[in-house]
Amino acid sequence: MLLFDMDGTLIDSNGVWREVDRTFLARRGLSYTHAYYEGVAHTTLPTAAKFTKEFCKLTESCEDIIAEWLELSNDIYARVPVKPGVRAYLKQCRAQGERMAVVTSSVPEHCHTAMERLDLMKYFERVTFAQELGLEKRNPEIWLAAAKAAGTPPEDCVAYDDSLAALHGAREAGMRTVGVHDKFFAQDEKAMEEFCDVFIRSFEELLIPEAKR
Known about the structure:
alpha/beta, six-stranded parallel sheet, 44% helix
């Protein structure tokens, strides 16, 4: 079973959240810092909102923070592009009889908007949403839940993700890992290369010659 992250792995959407964060903080006279990024990157909205409220000493409720984030990002997922080689690789995997699913921290509405517009959902059996389970992807339990939902032993699963923390979770769950380069998280690239079973800068690297046409 092949388990794919969405943001930064299948679609080029990490920049969406960086711009949302910059705008949100700027409205409050605050700067976007690496420490802030470390607190909110690759996590669910409720967890990120709790961190933001405490880190920035905000008076707004977590619900109000999330509502503002959703307002800022609402229509952007209708325009995000698929990453290079993704469509061809998914087609190749399907032709080889591979089963595939998505494991994402994304808001369900955002996921459906992007994946349906890009015509990618047809490749996947199901989507496991971290937000619905109340788990972060660094937690092996979410990967175990995805494997169980697919009726597949975790040792027969391969996780594709651009987050080193998420890949640690998948490895702890007993899965093989494929690290996917994303320019917004280049600082983790060396560690990802050393940790993952496979590291790619683009899905084009995984295409057999026939699929590249």
